[in-house]
Design a protein that fits this description.
The structure is a single chain. The chain is α/β, with parallel strands linked by helices and 196 residues long. The protein has a single domain, classed as Spore Coat Polysaccharide Biosynthesis Protein SpsA, Chain A (Alpha-Beta Complex), CATH 3.90.550.10. It has six helices and ten strands. The strands form two sheets. Strands 1, 4, 5, 6, 7, 8, 9 and 10 form an eight-stranded mixed sheet that branches. Strand 2 and strand 3 form a beta hairpin. Helix 2 packs across helix 4. The chain is globular and about 45 Å long. 39% of the residues are buried. Bound molecules: guanosine-5'-triphosphate. The site of guanosine-5'-triphosphate has 23 residues, from strand 4 and helix 2.
């Protein structure tokens, strides 16, 4: 068993985006590569969990490319976390979504510093808003996730109510790191408009 594994969640349907968010380009690099760059120096191994149709396009030697387990394929971020945990062997999992291209290592370092074996998860909060897609989860949560999925409860927030969570607050200054690109409008507002 290794200690620390990274998970990039990339298998969403991008239904609010014009195209596949995983391949959207920011600073000349696809979003999925930003996420891999972020995790690679921090963990022992990285898994990227995506849809079947993405597997031929994702090219990065640094990661294991996985798809969702048959039992929960396409059932949301919880399915992605479950699918990586069930085929890997680690104590802790550092999770990032593919659509937060401004996330910084410094934020993840703060979460790592807060790791504590008496908790199930270490999760950031911005202005009291919980951000469960970026976080550290103990392997203990696998059984809880499995039960949630079996009960058709796919909400990450709902998962957190079942766990012992250490919340880590970040200030306003860091809120830009958590910006989520969901729509073409978000892409224009935060990327095209700024990059010119
Ligand atoms: N592996 C996997 N990842 C997922 C799944 N659903 C969402 N994700 C990822 O989880 C993160 C957050 O998901 P959403 O914001 O809902 O993104 P999305 O589902 O692609 O977008 P919408 O269809 O617009 O909701 C993104 O990084 C997605 O790629 C899934 O079923 N499996």
């Amino acid at each position: 068993m290794h200690r620390f594994h990274g998970i990039v969640l990339a298998g969403g349907s991008s239904s609010r985006f014009n195209g596949d968010k995983a391949f959207a380009i920011y600073q000349s690099k696809p979003f999925y590569q930003h996420a891999i760059d972020l995790l690679t120096p921090l963990v022992e191994q990285v898994s990227l969990v995506c849809r079947l149709d993405q597997t031929n396009v994702i090219a990065d030697q640094r990661v294991s490319v996985l798809t969702d387990d048959d039992r929960c394929r396409g059932e949301g971020p919880l399915a992605g976390i479950y699918s990586a945990m069930v085929v890997t062997d680690a104590q802790w999992y550092l999770v990032v979504p593919v659509d937060t291209p401004f996330m910084k290592k410094t934020i993840l370092h703060v979460l790592i510093e807060q790791m504590d074996p008496t908790y199930d998860a270490i999760i950031p909060c911005i202005d009291g808003r919980v951000q469960p897609l970026v976080g550290i989860y103990n392997i203990n949560v696998l059984a809880v996730i499995q039960k949630q999925l079996a009960d058709n409860k796919r909400s990450m927030h709902q998962l957190l109510t079942r766990l012992k969570v250490k919340y880590v607050s970040f200030g306003d200054k860091e809120s830009s790191c958590f910006v989520n690109i969901n729509s073409a409008d978000d892409f224009y507002r935060y990327i095209t408009n700024k990059e010119g």
